[in-house]
Amino acid sequence: MSRDGGEVSLRQDTTAESMARHRFAQTSIALTIIVLFLIMIASTAVTNQKAVAEPTEFPTSARQGSLDVDCTGYKFEDLFDYNFASFDILLGDDWATAQMTAVAYVNGSNSATVRENLDELFEGTPGGNNSWMSTDEREAVRAIGPECIADMDTRIGIREGLPHRGGVDWNDLEFVKDGIALDEVNLVPENHPEERDCQDLLASSDCKEVPVSITDDLQILMFTKEGESHNVRFDQLPNSGVSNFTLALNVTNMSSAGLVLTFPQLQGLRLVNSSIQDDNVESNAMPLPEAEYLPDGRLRVSQDVNYAASDYPILRNLFLDFTTQAPETNEIPEWTADAPVDGTVIPYSVGTRDLVAGEVTELWATDDSGWALDCQFANQEWVGQWTAGLDEEGTLFLDGPDDVAADATADAECSVIDPFGASSIETRNWTFAQPFTSQATISESGDSVEFTVTPTGVVSELSISAHAHQMTMMGEMRMATLASDASTLALPLDGLAPGEVMVMGQAQSNGMLDYNFMLDFGLNKPSAPPVIEVDVNLDGSNATWDASYLKFTIAGKVLDPDGENVAMSLTLCGYSTNDFVRSG
Predict the structure, then answer these.
(1) Which of 202, 219, 318, 400 has its CB 3.0 to 4.6 Å from that of 386, i.e. a possible disulfide?
(2) DSSP sequence for 517-549
(3) 3-class DSSP state for residue 238?
(4) Which region, left, alpha or beta, applies to residue 511 given φ > 0 means left and ψ of -120 to 50 means alpha?
(5) What would the CATH number be for the domain defined by 436-525?
(6) What is the pLDDT of residues 285-307, one digit of tens each?
(7) pLDDT given at position 559
(8) Domain ranges within the chain, ordered by starting residue
């Protein structure tokens, strides 16, 4: 990885001459949208020296209608006054790669400045620097952005050993071009009142453009490209985090941001210290980071970052010190009265992974440092095939084979463990099982779902409540109590629109957690034909003729059982008309 004796080469030159020469120096202190993004996510690694930007033109050139970009060593001089940015960094289990997701929010007048600067970025290319922001320019940003970002530093370094500060030889995180994806929201707003077709002769056929002066809010997003596992890499830590290490971040120029770091699951990993340094002097310019343990055992650290315009050109670094050494005191986690008791049946359906929501499981145990579930399956047949635990949201999940018998049960002994390896004295024995199997069809009349439920026998009696369900509509609830025999519930389709229909409901039994289910049988409610009622006159006819007997009028009602719009037409003697007067 590229280093310069542990110190970075990216600098900020505050001289008046350099500011005058810089191509994008403006009163609002804003750069182009790409430079914006690079300022937020790609600056310097940690150093003792002030970050100074040498005057240089953004390294993009037009060659035969295409854009070449080389951002190696690119310097910047002024703050970009973005409104807020969020950064989420997920370190990989290999301790050598990471996924970085970033969202930059640009509002009001700042967005107009960004569009103007981006338009200037493409000077010399078709449609560039003409005071209009086009969809063609937007696509160019998406195309060249990853290549440019890959040339830059991430402003993050890591080093194993005792806590580090200053210009040591940091293990810098680097961007991976093939893993980077860029996108935007509202850079060129659709159907804007000032939108027009692109005027450049070489513009694409569907190109649209808006004035750069519009102030519609926009967003810039960076994330891991689909099909790729990471967009950041670093030298693999020899001990994979099982030792002391320091993570350092240069947060200079980040005016308002939220930073979230999530580490791989590692027993005992904890944040032991942090510090902010302004020009190598301890500072309290930012709040302390917050550390929490996710229900799946991973450590997450959140940091609010701020850097006022008046702080420039102070170099601000954040240092986070980690260790896996056990704390001096550690309480043993305990079950609560809300946890399922011994012998509880936890219901599931094959193909459904999530069983119990996090807002329920969070009440099952308590520990000062957070806790997770450790479940071991008793039957040797299931060892290695079944896994149960909590995900990062606290949802109880179950992974297992898809070909298991309907009446098969999987018994597990579960303990509560904390991040430092302490385990609850008491264990809980639970049984994972399918309480029923089911099938469903649309009735011959098309007015209901015939939902057939067959108990598997894992519980003695089962209460079922279910209804036909669509995203925003539901049919009437039907209920049944089952012992051993199958039962069919007719679930009305009244009030539901034609189209896909699922079955939603709940199963309850003594000794079993309530089972909320949503079952998709691939059913579709058919569309019922409209009903026409033609008014009858006193003489028994349907039509009322005018005096000339050349024109007649018929009236009546049209009702669609599904509540859909109805188109009407009348055909008479080979001629058709749809000239109906509607009311209601």
Answers:
(1) 400
(2) EEEEEEEEEPPPPPEEEE---TTS-SEEE-TTS
(3) coil
(4) left
(5) 2.60.40
(6) 999 999 999 999 999 999 999 99
(7) 83
(8) 16-322, 338-430, 436-525, 531-577
